[in-house]
Amino acid sequence: MLSSGGTEAARAGRGFTAKVSDFGLSRCVEHKSRVETATCGTITHMAPEVLEHGVVSKAADVYSFGVLLWQMCVGRRPWAGMSHAAVVHAVCVQQRRLEFGPDADEGAAMLARACMARDPEERPSFREVLEVLEPLGAALESGSVAAVTRSIAALSGAVAALSGFAVAGARGGGARAPEHVGEDVG
């Protein structure tokens, strides 16, 4: 969940605070690799397989994380201004993807694209995502601008080096009209 609440930390950055939240829609998949359900949720953040078949898995959660990462990078709501039916059509039928602008950090954009791969088998695991993000977090905690800069520069290489998904295919899709990829959060 992204909140545009009034904490000082939120105002210092892009005007929102990232929070992990459970809206009571979670399902336990400890003993299974996936769960099939007719649960409703946040349509704009759902993986294609969830929208098409109601299949919830860890890979679907990785897709949703990719949407959150996109939202944090570009400061917009995914698929803003579109009805739920239009979002489902765009994601499932047209196979459209959220687009990053030219100012987006390339490493973060590559990671988000990999997380939002259409094929669940091509998405990284959360363990792999964590391996990419931990060095950046450590650099941010150190407060060293040079360390943060080095970590951000290394992010692209680390994403490309991850096994289990194809970063090259993650760039797919052509240019999209801005009204279809979000609106400013504010």
TrEMBL record:
Coiled coil: none annotated. PROSITE patterns: PROTEIN_KINASE_DOM. InterPro entries: Kinase-like_dom_sf, Prot_kinase_dom, Ser-Thr/Tyr_kinase_cat_dom, Ser/Thr_Kinases-Pseudokinases. Gene3D superfamilies: Transferase(Phosphotransferase) domain 1 (1.10.510.10). Residues 1-137 form the Protein kinase domain. One of its GO terms (molecular function) is protein serine/threonine kinase activity. Transmembrane segments: none annotated. This is Protein kinase domain-containing protein. It comes from Monoraphidium neglectum.
